[in-house]
């Protein structure tokens, strides 16, 4: 395994974007080699194709093996690739058949949009298609509002990121629009993609090429922005993104011969589609033949809810049982017994008084 350092200019750009240098942990998530800010590739094989991306990861989706990487934990602006985390978070939380009336705020989101109106004509399923196919920032906000609001959705997204151990990721928007403090990494995007591929609805949204989308009076067609869906053999999809500050970013996954390769890139200065295809080709050729340079870690286990222990008082733990209820026949028999006892007691008392009176008469004599 060998390491190639990134140019100083690229390193300074990374630091500037992330608001300062981030100290790498002693053992980074995924393995020691992934702490490098340069190229990390296996020995004994041809190096991965060159890429203008500041950061990338090539990984085997089944095994989680990282086959090669470049600055994998560099914290960068994710742009719309963050929508993969939005979808992964909200798909399990929202009913696909629910009808949504987007707010004016959602419909007026800046940047890429699918063209929402404020009419109740959209299903949640439609909004997820708009999110992952057309990269609709308006759809991202409408889904966040449906989930209980922006603040709750961001909490949910960041909680999912932590559970995935995507510790370089901080979500400040559901759309990926640039915000101070928002970040992710090529490694984290690979974790998110791998988790998303395990969800059938997530796979359906990212692999759909075209779909009908509701309009106030009819439908119109939307198409997937992932160009490799039409060009690359076995392409499943996932998500691309771009802003002027983040530049180009992309998450891609493809399957050949029953095996899936994930490629993520961040901060690419230009046209990246051909480079991603070359990185995917290299991944398919290398999988199973090289010593991995790292590992996509598994999510943390979901902790069961903590149940509050209630200590009962002795009286509460050993309640006094009321006497059993008597049925009609039992009540009648009991009444007879009581009555007999009363009568018998009265006769006995009368005999005793008679005997006492006789004794008194004899004593007076």
Automatic annotation (TrEMBL):
Keywords: Cell shape, Cell wall biogenesis/degradation, Hydrolase, Membrane, Peptidoglycan synthesis, Signal, Transmembrane, Transmembrane helix. GO terms for molecular function: serine-type D-Ala-D-Ala carboxypeptidase activity. The chain crosses the membrane at residues 337-356. Substrate binds at residue 239. The keyword Membrane applies. Residues 47-267 form the Peptidase S11 D-alanyl-D-alanine carboxypeptidase A N-terminal domain. It comes from the Bacteria. GO terms for biological process: cell wall organization; peptidoglycan biosynthetic process; proteolysis; regulation of cell shape. Residues 307-332 are annotated as: Disordered. Pfam families: Peptidase_S11 (PF00768). Residues 1-23 form the signal peptide. The active site is at residues 80, 83, 135. Belongs to the peptidase S11 family. This is Peptidase S11 D-alanyl-D-alanine carboxypeptidase A N-terminal domain-containing protein.
